[in-house]
Design a protein that fits this description.
It comes from Paraburkholderia monticola. It is found in: Cell membrane. GO terms for molecular function: electron transfer activity; heme binding; iron ion binding; oxidoreductase activity, acting on CH-OH group of donors. The chain has a three-stranded antiparallel beta sheet with strand order 1-2-3, with no helix packed on it. The protein has a two-stranded antiparallel sheet with strand order 4-5. A hairpin with a 2-residue loop joins strand 1 and strand 2. It has 19 helices and nine strands. The longest helix is centred in the first third of the chain and has 34 residues. About 40% of the residues lie in helices and about 5% in strands.
Length: about 475
Amino acid sequence: MMKNTSRVQPDSASMHGTQRRRLGGAALAAAFSLFALSIAWHESHGPDPRSSDEMPITQARADDAAQAADGGATLAGPAANGELVKRGQYLTRAADCAACHTADPSRPFAGGLPISTPFGTIVTPNITPDPDTGIGQWSDADFMRAMHEGIGKGGERLYPAFPYTAYTRVTDQDVLAIRAYLNTLAPIHYTPPANDLKFPFNQRWLMALWNLFNFTEGRFVPDPKQSPEWNRGAYLVEGLAHCEECHTPRNFMEGLKSSARFSGAVQAGWHAFNITPDKLSGVGDWRDDELVSYLSSGAAPGRANAAGPMGEVVANSTQYLTPVDLRSIVVYLRSVPAVSGGDTRPRHQWGNPAADVTALRGTTITGVNGAQLFVANCATCHSWTGQGVGASAPGAYPSLIHNSTVGANDANNLALVILRGVNRTTAHADVLMPAFGGHLDDEQIAAITNYVTKQFGNPQATITTGEVAKLRTLQ
């Protein structure tokens, strides 16, 4: 008589399932171990922050003045220090440090500016030489490590709202020049508010993992196959000016999408437009002198007028760049791969003059009417036809026709300009547009925006009252 053993012998499917679970657990443990080992190796074998540049950036200089300033830094005595500080001020402007580290104009470089991110709010630190609340007790090596590796004085990981991912390309000499200039600032005793990041994003050690996927440490190396002008432009655009931080879209980790460099992105509601050579979506149809004019003054008549964050970049940074450096930036941008954004025509080729003012005479208006609101609030400066006042003069009120903000395929920038106004001061002109957010409600802002895009710009670009309300809250 045979015994029934089915109750004590597991079937084949059960055995295979158990084996799969064990193998899966082992694989997960192995993956975690490899990750931990990779971080440990990275920490122990990372580059020495005191290492010299891979190649002297003087090979990439496009102007003798810049070379002379760098050379002066190697001399002894007060003259050398003066040249170093002067060079540092120029580089600090090129890097636009003031834009993020100045929340209150009465406290320049003392930080406190809140930066909205998908993971919470990051508040910029004080970088004045105050010993208690600033960087007065930082050594040059501490400063270099922060700029090149994103690591603070106490060994804490810095968040990439500080663009160390770009500044890592800046040469040691230029970093030390920036440090020398910051040391001459008035120390301001001010502790900015703390960051507001929820768990786990408030755990700085996680930045080690982020860096593995989104950061490559190393100085800029000039390309011997390219001209000095191209190399200088690449050094500025990829490093000091960190243009990709705004003009390149981001992945799910908020790292830059290298496959879509300079193709445009949205930052705190503002659309940083495509600056690749694509003729429809980018700046491929712009002349070189128009790009230089836009960077130096914020205005390229018939093309665009800088507002919002880009207006601040012009006012704080690019207006101070030498003509040679501006041309170098243009040369480099001309060489990057063109990326199409799907536009059917360039942003600056939309629009026709309006004649609504005559149609409104004697008409009873009920409800919120965009044309009426435009005539009442905008026509004094931009003309009721939308053609502006002053043509291409430095202080002109720009035309809304052939205007890249109005002709964009989304209406966010236009709505934000109406909400917040424009205040751009350069050597060319003081440009002021009042902010209407204080006395027009969200429905009225949306009505004006939609009227302007329909009449003078891209009629496909519309905005709702709810979207205006959301833009109003963004920092």
